[in-house]
Amino acid sequence: MKAMRTGLVAFLIASLTSPAFAGDLQSSAAKAVESQVAPAPPAPPALGGGSKPLVLAGAAIFVTGFSVGAYSFINNKNGTYTEFGEATARNVKLGSAGLGAAFAGGLLMFMGSRMKHAPSVTAGAGSLRVTKRLSW
Fold this sequence. Notes:
Layout: H1 2-17, H2 25-34, H3 52-74, H4 92-113, E1 120-124, E2 127-131
Antiparallel strand pairs: 1-2
Helix pairs in contact: 3-4
């Protein structure tokens, strides 16, 4: 606790005294204007597309579900791995649920990677519009 308090005080002192070392504000602003480069043109949109959060969430669910499923099928609750003839020692319900979650995570990854190609659906008062852009 004492080390954290000392570090916090040192950080506060450094942050409060750093403007004293900044120098002249006008010359600094002039240097910044001189060194400014023209902005680069915007990059074209990526062709791969997709929904990155959906893909990452799907990957996390897939890894977790597959790990739980594999562990549940392999672990026989007596400190060793399953051997021939120990079919009833496994946790089949949890293993099946884990593999189901892995399937759902894989489906989320697939849908997230294909999100760019999905049609646009707009719902309004008394109307429903589906728009799909086709190109070949």
